[in-house]
């Protein structure tokens, strides 16, 4: 029973992530790619995403804290973050990055600072949620169950 | 008492008139006699040199004594004492002595004095003469200077006209001439024409016959000759009331020719032509021609002759040089025209030969092939006749031709038979033509998807069609791989036909290519290089006719949508680690063998002909990603070895698509890529090798 319960809560949780717009269909694609030959694909990708993004956000903070902001350095970082987040389906992070980039183009330091905060916020949100997701999955697997495939019809 | 005084009574009474006159005369004589020496002394003192002082003293003494005598005589006119008489006597005696002495001395002196006078006169004459000579020398020196200057002037120019004009001007100035003229012989040599004059600006051009006696007189000698002012050559100016015309001198000026200058042969001997220079002194002057002036004129005439000859030589050589240059230019043009003509003719001949021979070779080849197949006796006879007709060419080459037909070739096909035949003829003909020895193999087979990838096409047979591949391999001359692209261009030759023993492609391959393209196929040539033989391959799409289905030849499965990508080697290039991983995951899931790189440099290093597709992320800002596409194109010149290039980008508007196309990418994919998208794209790509629709 617990297993079924866990599986149900996993499904609901995942659904909520999609409904909230934290994740989009790209994440589903990733899940589709996970199979017997590649069982940890999603977690591997997500872990990599976390590592990359932590680094990028660090660099961005440093760059924006300079006396004279070098937008030529800032923009590539944001672009990279946008790319990564869209690859795994972190929709809100991606959107925040898009706004960030436009402020970069305008060379608006104030705006950039605000965007950075926003991006960080979204990022930590998705990180948190995904970590919770993985924990749930691990629990299910530890209990000997299978992670249910997501339904695509919503 | 009458004292007896010692007085002496004069002879005559003192009152006597005569006595009175004597008295006065004596007085004056004394005075004169006293004053003469004074004068003498005075003048002698004045003069610097007087060699005869003692004469003077003597003479002075004589005079003084004479004067004294006469003075004392004055007292004897009246009664005078004895003393006076004594003094008188003494004086007289002394005077007598001195006078005699003087007289004696003068005998010696006077001739001397006279000779001094003579010498003086002589010296004066000499001095006068020397002065005159000085004057003469100076004049001559002056003249000599003029000559030098004149010569210099004359020789400083190589222009004929200037030489002559300068001569006349300078001569006129130096010698203060009234007129100076030059008569040149005419072309015919029978007349002398007045060519240059000093004073008249535009000389009246008249001529005199050359055979005049006065002219002959001048021409005979190299000296300047005085001629009459009335001779025709001298009558240059209108006589206007001048009675006495100045003296006229004429001199010849030799006109030397180039050929006259032999090393040891002074041209005088061979020269024939002379010009005449006439010089006139001013009229109404008493001037006469002096010898030195005549000499000057002769010298000038010689100098002029030399200067003129130099000018003539120069003119000659300039003319010769100009002529040579003209001839050179003309020759060059002629040579080039000739070369062009020869080249054109050779090209024409070569093309004609080649075009005429090609079908011949093909006919021979195919006829030989035909002989190998099963023929009825009549057919065999006909084939042999054909071969015999073109035997002479056949004899030249003995090339075995083998034919291989793949077993799965359909028996009956639908297609354009005539054109297919032409293609085969052309290719086989080329093979025969290019090979001097060796064999030719013709292979026909059905093209399959797992064949080695051809340059432009990857063919997947569908139900009612199949792709026929024909390979014609020869072991002949081979082709330089760099020249292969040009082969299919009309008329493009790698070398002039005339220089290659086996001619180029000309029209044949271009036409074949056109036909093959019409049949939705492709044609290409492979060659390892010159001398390594050549393989011509073409694929054409042919229809399988109904009869083939009936005869049960197995069909190739027709489901292009679900092509198996198993083992398909691909390369993914993406700077973003996350998206790289995702793309890789996608492709691995589809069964591909995926290699990943994270930079363009790494990509170029790693990419090889084993990779069928390269996925490259091109949306990183600021980096010119498309360059990698160009570099890959450069790296893989053989199109069938080049991997397909697909761009992964964040936006897929028209400009991006166009950009990708222009850089030689075969397809564009929108990120992030879904599995189905990737699958569809990959299969479409591999089927058609180009993809710009699936967005």
From TrEMBL, chain A:
Q: Where is the HPt domain?
A: 38-143
Q: Which Pfam families match?
A: Hpt
Q: Could you list this entry's UniProt keywords, alphabetically sorted.
A: Cytokinin signaling pathway, Phosphoprotein, Two-component regulatory system
**Superkingdom of origin organism:** Eukaryota
Residues annotated as carrying Phosphohistidine in the record are 79
Where is this chain's protein located in or outside the cell? Cytoplasm, Cytosol; Nucleus
UniProt cross-references to InterPro entries, sorted A to Z: AHP1-5/YPD1, HPT_dom_sf, Sig_transdc_His_kin_Hpt_dom
**What remark about domains does the record contain?**
Histidine-containing phosphotransfer domain (HPt) contains an active histidine that mediates the phosphotransfer.
Sum up the protein's function in the record's words.
Functions as a two-component phosphorelay mediators between cytokinin sensor histidine kinases and response regulators (B-type ARRs). Plays an important role in propagating cytokinin signal transduction.
Supply the name of the protein. Histidine-containing phosphotransfer protein
Q: Could you tell me which species this protein originates from?
A: Brassica napus
From TrEMBL, chain B:
Top-level class of the enzyme under EC nomenclature = transferase
For this UniProt record, give its keywords in alphabetical order, as a comma-separated list. ATP-binding, Copper, Disulfide bond, Endoplasmic reticulum, Ethylene signaling pathway, Kinase, Membrane, Metal-binding, Nucleotide-binding, Phosphoprotein, Receptor, Transferase, Transmembrane, Transmembrane helix, Two-component regulatory system
The chain's coiled-coil residues are: none
What is its cofactor? Cu cation
Q: Which residues cross the membrane?
A: 21-42, 54-73, 93-114
Main location class = endoplasmic reticulum
Reaction(s) catalyzed by this protein?
Answer: ATP + protein L-histidine = ADP + protein N-phospho-L-histidine
Residues bearing the modification 4-aspartylphosphate:
617
Localization: Endoplasmic reticulum membrane
Q: Where is the Histidine kinase domain?
A: 382-546
Q: How the protein sits in the membrane?
A: Multi-pass membrane protein
Domain of life of the source: Eukaryota
Write down the SUPFAM superfamilies for this protein, in alphabetical order: ATPase domain of HSP90 chaperone/DNA topoisomerase II/histidine kinase (SSF55874), CheY-like (SSF52172), GAF domain-like (SSF55781), Homodimeric domain of signal transducing histidine kinase (SSF47384)
Entry-linked SMART domains = GAF, HATPase_c, HisKA, REC
User: Per the UniProt record, which EC number(s) apply here?
Assistant: 2.7.13.3
Where does the record place the Response regulatory domain?
569-686
Spell out the PANTHER family in the cross-references.
Answer: ETHYLENE RECEPTOR 1 (PTHR24423:SF615), TWO-COMPONENT SENSOR HISTIDINE KINASE (PTHR24423)
Family, as annotated: Belongs to the ethylene receptor family.
Q: What's this protein's name?
A: histidine kinase
| Biological source species | Brassica napus
